[in-house]
């Protein structure tokens, strides 16, 4: 296996999608230098406090939120997510998912997770892309937690417009009624929802709401990157310390 990997590296050297530098044979998905340079996301308790700015208590279906990196424009994390979504770099998603899983597992908010569910894409978008990027991330996270993925229990019942130009309230309205879940196997389960980027949490929250309605006991959520663009001051004031030294 090692010899095969070395030969492949010589014949078809892979580039890191985060920085376009050559990947070493021992590096998977993205390079060590990108891993070291990316800004860590705030602690789950701080991310949860930020969520409370966007939802009233009785509308918040997520019990905890974890993230790996801060989303920054023109940074390696944006390039990595772009490569995962638009350039077929499924393995980058798995590596990001492994890192995300290993990181959030350290926090008690994620104790008791017994299944992973990726945020679904609409059928038409999935057909166009060939895969759902959140499933790649879920694969890595499930590996870190050693639990199963329940990919088909939650589905997108309605196509929605892009959330990028919408404010927090508009995002919540846009995804209302966009998802459905119904499966007896969800009853009593603690589900970890996974996605690539979380901004206000509108999509994760409506998915969590549907899973709770279908019988899940508790739903926690995690995203590779947390985008603070919509409300930059809300979380920066709350950050106590980063995940890593
Ligand atoms: Zn890199």
Structural summary, described in words:
- The chain is of the alpha/beta class.
- It has two domains: 1-36, no CATH class; 38-236, 3-Layer(aba) Sandwich (Rossmann fold).
- It has ten helices and seven strands.
- The chain has helices spanning 2-11, 32-37, 44-54, 76-86, 90-104, 123-129, 133-145, 168-175, 202-213, 232-236, and strands at residues 65-71, 115-118, 148-149, 154-156, 179-181, 190-198, 218-227.
- The strands form two sheets. A five-stranded parallel β-sheet has the order 1-7-6-2-3. A two-stranded antiparallel ribbon has the order 4-5.
- α4 (76-86) crosses α5 (90-104) and α5 (90-104) packs across α7 (133-145).
- The two termini are 34 Å apart.
- Zinc ion binds at residues 16, 18-19, 21, 30-31, 33-34, 76.
- Residues 16, 18-19, 21, 30-31, 33-34, 76 line the site of zinc ion.
Topology:
Elements: H1 2-11, H2 32-37, H3 44-54, E1 65-71, H4 76-86, H5 90-104, E2 115-118, H6 123-129, H7 133-145, E3 148-149, E4 154-156, H8 168-175, E5 179-181, E6 190-198, H9 202-213, E7 218-227, H10 232-236
Parallel strand pairs: 1-7, 2-3, 2-6, 6-7
Antiparallel strand pairs: 4-5
Bound molecules: zinc ion.
The site of zinc ion has 9 residues, from helix 2.
Order of helices and strands: HHHEHHEHHEEHEEHEH
User: SS-based structural class?
Assistant: alpha/beta
Strand order of the largest sheet: 1-7-6-2-3
* Biggest beta-sheet profile: 5 strands, parallel
3D shape: globular
Strand content: 15-25%
